[in-house]
C-alpha cells in the first residue's frame, strides 16, 4: 500500500482555503490506498507572532520552559484544525500533540533546542502504526518534542522538517513529502532571477549545502534522517497534489550524522605570488586560475591578501603551475615575485552542525596548539573547515581532530 509522511509548512496552510486544499490532497492519497502520516507547522506567521507577544509581555524574564509551552500553541492549533478538516472530508483522523499517549518525539530537557533521544523516539513512534492500521490518519505537531517527564520542548527553527524525516525514518516510510510554497528546488531564487529553473533531482549533500547557505525550502538538519530506501521530494502546495514530482532528493548522507574528517592522501604544495595592492587588481585572480585550469591543474584552495595570493595545488603539478605563473609575474607590472613552498597536508572537516556551533574553530585548533602543530592556512564555510598544515604534522593533526569532532 505504501506509507507517506507529508509535512505541510506554515505557508501551505496559511489560511482556511489552503488548509482544505492540503487536507484534500491527503485524502486523495488515502483513497488511493496509501497510509499517510501528516506533520504540520504552525499556521503562517503564528510562531513569529507568539515570540513577539512573549517578548513584549514577559521580556527577558521568560524561561526556556515557558517559551517552549507558548510556542507549542502554534502547532497545537494547526493539528486540531487540520485533523478536523480531514474528518469533514469523510476520513478518520486523530491529532497527536505532546500530551497524547502516542506522542513520538522524545527529547532531552533543552527546551529551546532539544536533542532527540533516537532510541526512545523510534520505539514510541511505532504507536502511530496502530492508528494507520485502523484507517486513521495521524496529524502530528512538527517542531515539538517531549521529555520523559512529559514537558514540552522545541527542536529549533526548521524543526518540522526534522520531525517529518525523523518519523519517515522511524516508520520506514516509502516517501517523505515536504509541501512548501515553491515548485521544488530552483537553480536560484526565482524572485531575483526570472530565468530560474526547477531541478528534477538534487543530492542530499547538495541540498544540505544549499539549505545551509540560505535556501529556505528545507532545514539542513532534517537530512540526517534521510534513509537510502526512502524517497523524498519537495513540492508546492499550489497544485494540491502529493503525487506532483517536484524535486526529488536523492541518496543518504555517507554516515548517519553527516560528519567527516579527511586527510588528503598526497602532499599539497604552495605557490605564492607577491605584489602590491593585489586585492584591487581587477581580473588578476581570473588570470591566475585560468592559466592553471588551461594546464588541467586542480586548485584545492586559494588565500588572497593585500600583497599576496597563494594557491594550494597537488605537489606533482605544482612545478608546472609555478612556471606558468612566473610568466604572468613577469608580464604584470603590479606583480613582483613568485615562490614555490614546502609540502603541506590538507585536512578537511565536514559537519552540518558547524554553522550553529559557536567556538568550533577554537575547539579544533586548540589541540593543535597544545601539541605545537602550526597552521599554515585555514578556510571555512558554513559546513566545512579546511586546514593546511606542515606535511610531517598531518597524521598527528588528523588523530587529534578526530578525537574532538
UniProtKB/TrEMBL annotation:
One of its GO terms (molecular function) is aspartate kinase activity. Gene3D superfamilies: 3.30.70.260, Acetylglutamate kinase-like. It comes from the Archaea. GO terms for biological process: homoserine biosynthetic process; lysine biosynthetic process via diaminopimelate; threonine biosynthetic process. GO terms for cellular component: cytosol. Its EC number is 2.7.2.4. Residues 273-346, 349-405 form the ACT domain. Keywords: Amino-acid biosynthesis, ATP-binding, Kinase, Nucleotide-binding, Transferase. It is an enzyme of class 2 (transferase). Pathway: Amino-acid biosynthesis; L-methionine biosynthesis via de novo pathway; L-homoserine from L-aspartate: step 1/3; Amino-acid biosynthesis; L-threonine biosynthesis; L-threonine from L-aspartate: step 1/5; Amino-acid biosynthesis; L-lysine biosynthesis via DAP pathway; (S)-tetrahydrodipicolinate from L-aspartate: step 1/4. This is Aspartokinase. It comes from Methanobrevibacter ruminantium (strain ATCC 35063 / DSM 1093 / JCM 13430 / OCM 146 / M1) (Methanobacterium ruminantium).
Amino acid at each position: 500500500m505504501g506509507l507517506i509522511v507529508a509535512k505541510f509548512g506554515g505557508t501551505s496552510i496559511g489560511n482556511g482555503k489552503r488548509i482544505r486544499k492540503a487536507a484534500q490532497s491527503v485524502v486523495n492519497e488515502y483513497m488511493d490506498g496509501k497510509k499517510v502520516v501528516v506533520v504540520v507547522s504552525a499556521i503562517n506567521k503564528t510562531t513569529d507572532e507568539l515570540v513577539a507577544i512573549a517578548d513584549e509581555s514577559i521580556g527577558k524574564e521568560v524561561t526556556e520552559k515557558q517559551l517552549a509551552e507558548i510556542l507549542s500553541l502554534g502547532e497545537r492549533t494547526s493539528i486540531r484544525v487540520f485533523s478536523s478538516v480531514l474528518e469533514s472530508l469523510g476520513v478518520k483522523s486523530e491529532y497527536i500533540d505532546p500530551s497524547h499517549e502516542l506522542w513520538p518525539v522524545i527529547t532531552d530537557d533543552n527546551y529551546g533546542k532539544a536533542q532527540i533521544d533516537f532510541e526512545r523516539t523510534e520505539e514510541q513512534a511505532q504507536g502511530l502504526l496502530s492508528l494507520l492500521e485502523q484507517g486513521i490518519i495521524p496529524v502530528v505537531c512538527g517542531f515539538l518534542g517531549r521529555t520523559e517527564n512529559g514537558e514540552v520542548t522545541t527542536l529549533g527553527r526548521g524543526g518540522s522538517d526534522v520531525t517529518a524525516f525523523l518519523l519517515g525514518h522511524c516508520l520506514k516510510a516509502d516517501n517523505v513529502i515536504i509541501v512548501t510554497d515553491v515548485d521544488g528546488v530552483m537553480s536560484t531564487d526565482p524572485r531575483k532571477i526570472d530565468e530560474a529553473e526547477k531541478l528534477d533531482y538534487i543530492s542530499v549533500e547538495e541540498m544540505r549545502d544549499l539549505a545551509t547557505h540560505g535556501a529556505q525550502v528545507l532545514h539542513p538538519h532534517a537530512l540526517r534522517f534521510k534513509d537510502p530506501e526512502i524517497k523524498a521530494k519537495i513540492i508546492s502546495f499550489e497544485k494540491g497534489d502529493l503525487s506532483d514530482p517536484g524535486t526529488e532528493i536523492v541518496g543518504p548522507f555517507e554516515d548517519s550524522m553527516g560528519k567527516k574528517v579527511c586527510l588528503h592522501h598526497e602532499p599539497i604544495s604552495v605557490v605564492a605570488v607577491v605584489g602590491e595592492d593585489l586585492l584591487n587588481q581587477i581580473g588578476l585572480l581570473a588570470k591566475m586560475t585560468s592559466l592553471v585550469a588551461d594546464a588541467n591543474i586542480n586548485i584545492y584552495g586559494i588565500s588572497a591578501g593585500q600583497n599576496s595570493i597563494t594557491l594550494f595545488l597537488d605537489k606533482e603539478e605544482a612545478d608546472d603551475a609555478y612556471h606558468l605563473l612566473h610568466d604572468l609575474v613577469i608580464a604584470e607590472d603590479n606583480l613582483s615575485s613568485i615562490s614555490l613552498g614546502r609540502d603541506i597536508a590538507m585536512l578537511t572537516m565536514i559537519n552540518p552542525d558547524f554553522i550553529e556551533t559557536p567556538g568550533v574553530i577554537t575547539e579544533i585548533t586548540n589541540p593543535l596548539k597544545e601539541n605545537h602543530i602550526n597552521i599554515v592556512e585555514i578556510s571555512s564555510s558554513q559546513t566545512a573547515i579546511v586546514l593546511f598544515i606542515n606535511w610531517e604534522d598531518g597524521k598527528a593533526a588528523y588523530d587529534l581532530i578526530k578525537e574532538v569532532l
